[in-house]
């Protein structure tokens, strides 16, 4: 699978799919007023541009009598959720009559691009920002009022894929549900993932005549995790993956594309792809469904502590805008707070190799909060040292590169600076990552041709990322192999030999060097593409120990009453290494189980 406070949106910034930086392009003001006000700032409407997470942001700024009256977004390609940051900043700018407002944490790149666009619009006035008379604007950070305590049957911590799924199922089983999330929007890592879902025996496999089974998936997951997984948990995942994919499709109304991807480590192609190959489809539909079934969601709310009374978890203490709030749970609490890939201190504690030198694909909200809270009430932690890197990420930012999904189509090869292949392209993520770091410069170069680009459509489905990669010299498109190789100073002579050899393998139907699985397709005509990438932290396999009912288990092997967990916050499901697209299956299967069982737990 490819997937984070207040002006807390700064989270998923680290995971921006397209770039950072703030390239700007100023445009002339549209309707300036030649009259100068007493402040020295001319009235009028002005336009400006900035570079956000998803590309260009264009705004229109209206000034009147030295005051910011209105800011309209004319153009943007920001991911839903991140886009909300622009409204938050707009409200703050108008309230304070200043451009010097906080960025929205969790949406750092969007915030930076938006603020740059607004300031560029203001530059058209010829005035200085200092001429704006700043207003006092008390309480603009969180306008929402909260009580000191709330009570519901089920309290769920974390509004990513697992938390939303658990909330829906708890509500469907008759429980009143409050869902709390520390970020300013729902989504977590699922929002920024590709959202692919491993489902054995699915409807597309049947159409393509691909034979698969729950048992085959079970074996793939165990083998992929070096048999360090809990077989009972893997059995539960394998047995319920397909029905939960159908639940997403039929009950939550998630739209899936009409093709699958072949992720490394799987024995067959079985991974479903959501609309637009993006986790946005999952989160938007799950969020909508949660509202429909009556789930109450409190954003910008950071869980701090689990409350235990009479050996049962009965409440969650949380912080909202500096105020402590107690969320009482009649039946149970579900932890769905994700992993700890963005918590450097925690990573180093459990695996010193995962230090500050390694970038991360994760949302900035992935800081292990739920793991820490659960440990304090006696939960057992398992597999904490197993931290996975994704092999093909932005070498500058660490973000996962979805243009690289051409690899999962079996239509590309990975080479090194010397122009030679060094690993099977559909191997496990950990195997590929380890092989990459051993190459010159610790990077890989992915090569593919025009036919592969057209067949995969990654330049269309992920156009914003494609444009960013081209503009920033991470991806090159060339008319000859020699030209493409020269761009990255790759040995062109050896690369041509490698391609010729691979084409011969494709002709004979067998990869003699690395035994690449799936169908081998020869490379043909230009243009040719080469993308530079390196591994980055992607998933933490360790976490809270649970049983097959999603109950949290303590260090003595006993169930902690009233406490459940699902998703990346848990451990022992994926072993040493998670296979691609298994995470969405995991969060859906165990999210549903946790939600149902929390709803039915004895009061």
Can you count the beta strands? 22
The whole-number mean of residue pLDDT values reads 90
The Rg value, from CA coordinates, equals 25 Å
Name the poorly predicted regions: 1-29, 138-142
- Strand residues, percent: 15-25%
Query: What is the SS-derived class?
Result: alpha+beta
Overall spatial form? globular
Q: Largest sheet, if any?
A: 8 strands, mixed
Total count of helical runs of at least 4 residues: 17
Tell me the span between the first and last alpha carbons.
Answer: 36 Å
Q: Summarize the amount of helix as a percent range.
A: 25-40%
List keywords for this structure.
603 residues; alpha+beta; 5-stranded antiparallel β-sheet; 17 helices; 22 strands; disordered N terminus
Structure characterization notes:
- The structure is a single chain.
- The N terminus is likely disordered.
- It is globular, with a radius of gyration of 25 Å.
- α3 runs parallel beside α17, α6 packs across α7 and α7 crosses α17.
- With 603 residues, the chain is an alpha+beta fold.
- The strands form five sheets. Strands 5, 6, 10, 11, 12, 13, 21 and 22 form an eight-stranded mixed beta sheet that branches. Strands 15, 16, 17, 18 and 19 form a five-stranded antiparallel beta sheet that branches. A four-stranded antiparallel beta sheet has the order 1-2-3-4.
- The chain has 17 helices and 22 strands.
